[in-house]
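Researcher: Please translate sequence to structure tokens.
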Amino acid sequence: MEIHTQKEANATVVAITGRLDAVTAPEYEKAVNELIAGGEIAFVIDFGSLDYISSAGLRGLLVTAKQLKGKGGQVRCANVKGTVKEVFDISGFGTIFQMDDTVAAALANIS
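Model: Translation complete:
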């Protein structure tokens, strides 16, 4: 898994490549926790290059959302497609997280 972050005007875009699973979820959580500790509270998670997500990856996303809610922040998901979208739909996470087709749309919808 690779994580790339980019600060935009109103949010930080976190692009994840590869797999978000039990092995890589702690790395994702550490990276996002460091951003939150640095004062970032608005995130767009870009799943466009993510090939696979497991329940551990979903848990990491939920932890992020809970931390941000406590700080008045928010997280939006972008480019959720293919098998990753199927996992979101089957798990019910598709109704928990706000999803947009593109990063640009997610950034436009950050309040």
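Researcher: Any highlights?
Model: The longest strand covers residues 42-53.
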